[in-house]
Prior knowledge:
This protein is α/β, with parallel strands linked by helices. The chain has helices at residues 6-10, 49-57, 84-98, 111-121, 157-160, 166-171, 175-188, 208-217, 219-226, and strands at residues 13-19, 22-29, 34-38, 61-65, 103-108, 126-132. It has a six-stranded mixed sheet, sandwiched between helices. Helix 2 links the parallel strand 3 (34-38) and strand 4 (61-65).
Amino acid sequence: MSHYTHSTVSEIKHRTVETNGIHMHIAESGAGPLVVLCHGFPESWYSWRHQLHALAEAGFHAIAPDMRGYGQTDRPEELDRYTLLHHVGDVVGLLDALGTETAVIVGHDWGAPVAWYAALLRPDRFRGVIGLSVPFISRAPVPPTSIMPQTEDAQFFQLYFQSPGIAEAEFERDVRLSIRSFLILGFRRRPGRRCKGRPRSRYGAAPRWLSLALDESGIVASLAHRSGRGVLRK
Length: 234
């Protein structure tokens, strides 16, 4: 059962900071040692709404940014501005903008590699690291896309994103439906099945708790109207 309430969201403050050459929207709550929460795809700060509240009550200053290219944060058009080094630089710059020397960094899904490499490259700034869903993976001797699974009728979703224009054309026909379908598919996909991309309404209704979050937060509208194309092939 979801513990989502209006009061939980109302206690979260929002602002925009300059970091690493972009304007980054952050949601924050509490005071104390800093904890930075990095979301995955296709998400936003809102994925951490419950953790923001819980960490604040535990005595921490919790911050969840819209990552580069998502939500209300700037979305550079150039694909080469979405590297891990750019993302790590964004988070380091976020600490600088807040006047904070160190933080614990947490990452989920595509946010996890950002957390792992932030701690690896800047141990002077990140005293602790937590990764959810994605373990630390060192750089492979071959391009990651060369070993991603693919068959005649299905392929790993990141492969689907590699050819410029194909995924964009399909998703942009109805961006709200695409984002809702991605989120719903994540909770309804059977174990072992590979996502081919191409979200459609046939995946059915969202779980009750997810429908509540989507409808009341306006987060789908935020992602649909603001997020950039660069996040697909980063």
